[in-house]
């Protein structure tokens, strides 16, 4: 066996590259034909269909709600901030949604997920699309963290906050031959400094849905949407800067956005889901990094190190270090800890807290 593995180590990579180079024109032609067919002949009509959108109180989830509304779908908007959902539901009706339900729920609680899925089925009688947009990013160096109780919260929101709604909705998606849409990120396969836990959670999420795709055998479609470094995340609040230090966590779904990259990304997600795409990538040119990662990882690492070095010396992040309480965003309600399926010991006010929807 060792001899066989040694032989394949030497032969398989170059042979695969040669085969791909020879077959690339044919594969590109087939993919183009498939794309044309889906664009012109296989786009799902969403009128009167039922769409559940989690994390719909703002940001990507909000924009996706408007895109489905323009297709005259029935919407179920889920988030913890019910007051935000009221305004979004009114706008969704204005742009074309047939009916809109709003439900306050926490997607990291399985009971909450069962509640909003069951209420959707009781009201509309079906579920056609489930859109998971719940996500939480961070920006800190791992060795700076002194309060490790923040770790489970990141994994709960980025992983279980997508898995629980999917698990509960699967029986009803089977009945409608529906589709699950997942909001992933390029960090799932291109990890970056200061985003270690976020990248790990997104990688776990993508692999979960890739495995689930095979289990479902195309009876339920799965669209994995992957975004790169959307400008709004950095410039509109995902990372708030104060005195040169990262001081604030923001959930992606809480970004206040209208127009620009997030709206374009939402349009691509909904259009790709309705056409039955397995993947939606924004922007798609990020795929070139895959070649470097597998065939020249040293070049990719060297490039990122150079880019990071050009931004100056390393700055200490106060997030999760317990140095002092994090400031509240202007106009936001008081915060509370996010509960999860696990149990944790109480934390002091000096420790990291999350924004309440």
Automatic annotation (TrEMBL):
GO terms for cellular component: cytosol; membrane. One of its GO terms (molecular function) is oxidoreductase activity. Residues 340-357 have a biased composition (Polar residues). Residues 316-357 are annotated as: Disordered. The keyword NADP applies. Its main location: membrane. Belongs to the short-chain dehydrogenases/reductases (SDR) family. This is 11-beta-hydroxysteroid dehydrogenase-like 5. The gene is HSD5_2.
């Amino acid at each position: 066996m060792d001899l066989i593995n040694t032989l394949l180590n030497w032969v398989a990579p170059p042979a695969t590259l040669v085969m791909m180079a020879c077959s690339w024109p044919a594969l590109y032609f087939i993919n183009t034909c498939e794309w044309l067919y889906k664009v012109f002949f296989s786009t799902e009509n969403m009128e009167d269909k039922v769409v559940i959108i989690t994390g719909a109180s703002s940001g990507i989830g909000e924009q996706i709600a408007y895109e489905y509304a323009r297709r005259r779908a029935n919407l179920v908007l889920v988030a913890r901030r019910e007051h935000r959902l009221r305004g979004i539901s009114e706008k969704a009706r204005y742009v074309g949604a047939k009916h809109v339900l709003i439900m306050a729920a926490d997607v990291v609680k399985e009971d909450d997920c069962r509640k909003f899925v069951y209420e959707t089925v009781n009201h509309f009688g079906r579920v056609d699309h489930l859109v998971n947009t719940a996500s939480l990013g961070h920006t800190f160096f791992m060795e700076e963290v002194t309060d490790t109780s923040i770790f489970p919260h990141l994994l709960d929101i980025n992983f279980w906050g997508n898995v629980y709604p999917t698990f509960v909705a699967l029986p009803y998606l089977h009945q409608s031959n529906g589709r699950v849409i997942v909001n992933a990120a390029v960090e799932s396969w291109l990890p970056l400094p200061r985003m270690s836990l976020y990248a790990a959670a997104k990688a776990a999420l993508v692999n979960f849905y890739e495995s689930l795709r095979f289990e479902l055998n195309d009876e339920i479609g799965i669209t994995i949407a992957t975004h790169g470094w959307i400008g709004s995340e950095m410039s509109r609040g995902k990372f708030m800067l104060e005195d040169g230090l990262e001081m604030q966590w923001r959930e992606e779904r809480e970004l206040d956005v209208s127009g620009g990259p997030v709206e374009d990304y939402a349009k691509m997600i909904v259009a790709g889901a309705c056409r039955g795409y397995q993947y939606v990538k924004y922007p798609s040119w990020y795929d070139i990094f895959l070649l470097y990662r597998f065939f020249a990882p040293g070049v990719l690492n060297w490039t990122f190190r150079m880019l990071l070095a050009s931004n100056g010396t390393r700055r200490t992040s106060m997030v999760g270090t317990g140095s002092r309480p994090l400031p509240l965003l202007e106009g936001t309600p008081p915060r509370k800890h996010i509960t999860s399926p696990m149990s944790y010991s109480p934390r002091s006010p000096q420790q990291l807290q999350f924004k309440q929807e």
